[in-house]
Specification:
Layout (H helix, E strand, L loop, with lengths): L2 H11 L6 H32 L12 H22 L4 H5 L2 E5 L7 H20 L10 H6 L1 E5 L21
Helix pairs in contact: 2-3, 3-5
C-alpha cells in the first residue's frame, strides 16, 4: 500500500467517531504506559536515594495508601496533560485517535480533568456504553460533551475537526 493511498484512507475517515474496540485497545496501551511511568519514577527515586548515600539499590517498600493512590493519580495527570495539549495519549496516537469537544474544538483543562477522573474511576464500564451508543459515545463523552475521533494529523491543534454525526442524530 503506497503512502498516498494510506493518506487518502486516513483523510476519508478523519473526523469520524472511533469505535469501541479501537478505544479499548488504545486505553490498554495507555494503562501500560502509566504503569511504565510509575515504575520509572520508583526506579528514579531509588537511584537518587542511592546516589545520595543509600547503602543498597532497592525499590522502596511503599505503604497501602501509596499503593492504592499512586497509579490512579499518575493516570489522571497523564490523561489531563495529554488531552489538554495534543488531544491524544500515547495509545490514541498509535491508533490515530484524538479527543475533542463535540464542536471539534480542543478539550480544556476542566473538561479534561473531569473526563480523566471518570475514565480512571469507571473506565471499563463508562467506555462500554460506546458499544451500544449509535454515535460511539462512552458515558463520559455524553456527560462532558466530548468525542474520540479519527485524526492522524501530527499538528497540535489543526483546524477544528468537524465531528461527523451519523444519520440517526446524537444519542
Amino acid at each position: 500500500m503506497s503512502a498516498s493511498s494510506r493518506r487518502a484512507r486516513a483523510d476519508a475517515v478523519r473526523g469520524r467517531r472511533a469505535g469501541v474496540a479501537t478505544r479499548y485497545v488504545a486505553a490498554g496501551v495507555d494503562f501500560l504506559v502509566v504503569g511504565a511511568l510509575l515504575f520509572g519514577a520508583l526506579v528514579g527515586f531509588t537511584a537518587v536515594r542511592y546516589l545520595f548515600g543509600g547503602e543498597t539499590f532497592e525499590l522502596p517498600r511503599s505503604g497501602a495508601v501509596f499503593d492504592a493512590a499512586a497509579f490512579p493519580v499518575l493516570a489522571v495527570v497523564y490523561l489531563v496533560a495529554a488531552w489538554t495539549t495534543s488531544g491524544r495519549t500515547v495509545g490514541s496516537a498509535l491508533f490515530g485517535l484524538r479527543v475533542v469537544r463535540d464542536t471539534g474544538a480542543r478539550v480544556g483543562l476542566v473538561r479534561a480533568t473531569g473526563r480523566a477522573l471518570i475514565c480512571v474511576t469507571f473506565g471499563v464500564l463508562s467506555l462500554a456504553w460506546a458499544g451500544v451508543s449509535t454515535r460511539n459515545a462512552a458515558a463520559h463523552d455524553l456527560l462532558l460533551r466530548t468525542s474520540v475521533v479519527h485524526d492522524w494529523t501530527a499538528a497540535r491543534s489543526p483546524a477544528p475537526v468537524s465531528v461527523v454525526i451519523p444519520e440517526g442524530g446524537p444519542v
